[in-house]
């Protein structure tokens, strides 16, 4: 997710190249990630995360993150970036998925886990908790407990 121009948002970008942009974001140090979030991610990242990371619909992802689809549609049409708040929510999905993929040793299993209701989240799915920092922290805590073999 290096600072991007409108040309980098080209939909003709091969799938692997787009996915590598997501991987590049996860490899940034937290300071660089914060800069990218403050700058605002490109709105087309939502479609990429929905289809290539979570294997879900854009509408489902937007509903989980509580981002109005009309906002994303407007920003796509105008060539505007997501706000820092919207970017932060999307980045949480990217980062949690990367962590879960490491824990479960599968991106597909990570995506399924993220969309499955969890008892420790009051029956909510991990992805539905990522719209707030408190929810993100709790999902991270659960993943760390799974990772280190502590009962959840």
Give the topology.
Layout: H1 15-27, H2 30-39, H3 45-54, H4 58-65, H5 69-78, H6 84-104, H7 107-114, H8 133-147
Helix pairs in contact: 1-3, 1-6, 2-6, 3-4, 3-6, 6-7, 6-8
Describe the 3D structure:
This protein is mostly helical and 152 residues long. It has one domain (6-147). Helix content is 62%, strand content 0%.
Characterize the quaternary organization of these chains: single chain
> How many individual domains?
1
Taking all residues together, what is the mean pLDDT? 88
Number of helical regions: 8
Computed CA radius of gyration, to the nearest angstrom: 15 Å
Flag low-confidence runs. 1-14
Tags for this model:
single chain, 152 residues, mainly alpha, 8 helices, globular
Quick recap:
The protein has 152 residues and is mainly α.
